[in-house]
Design brief:
five-stranded parallel beta sheet; Rossmann fold
Length: 136
């Protein structure tokens, strides 16, 4: 779980998604329905900049990004911040065993298959918040 949260409650969430409609829908859900602070990036390079500037608690990363794919984004985040600073969630249309092994090897904490069920995402983020609460 990320160590950057000072108190439980709303999280700082980064959405890394190249499809604007998907990014907007997810942002609206996370900010309006759950009260999280949401940052957005349309590609891997922008994602790395946001991670360094904003230090989000969670990053929801699409794997099929232009230029730098989500696997490389995760590897670079992990090499810079380590495992305790940010919780990484892979978002992909692929859910085979090999896909899950590949995301785990890249440094992701969780692998979610699109379309992600709202309840599953909400439960996952609640666990991240609870993890922040137990660290205090």
């Amino acid at each position: 779980m990320p160590a950057s949260s000072q108190s439980p409650g709303p999280l700082k969430v980064l959405i890394v998604e190249d499809h604007p409609d998907a990014r907007t829908t997810l942002r609206m859900l996370l900010s309006m329905a759950y009260g999280h602070s949401v940052y957005e990036a349309a590609d891997g390079h922008a994602a790395l900049q946001v991670v360094l500037q904003e230090r989000p608690d969670v990053a929801l990363i699409d794997l099929g990004l232009p230029g730098m794919d989500g696997y490389e984004v995760a590897r670079r985040i992990r090499s810079t911040l380590g495992r305790d600073e940010i919780f990484l969630v892979a978002l992909t249309g692929h859910g085979e065993h090999e896909d899950r092994l590949r995301t785990e090897a890249a440094g992701f904490d969780v692998h979610l298959v699109k379309p992600v069920e709202t309840a599953a995402l909400a439960a996952l983020l609640s666990q991240v918040v609870a993890g922040a609460a137990t660290r205090e």
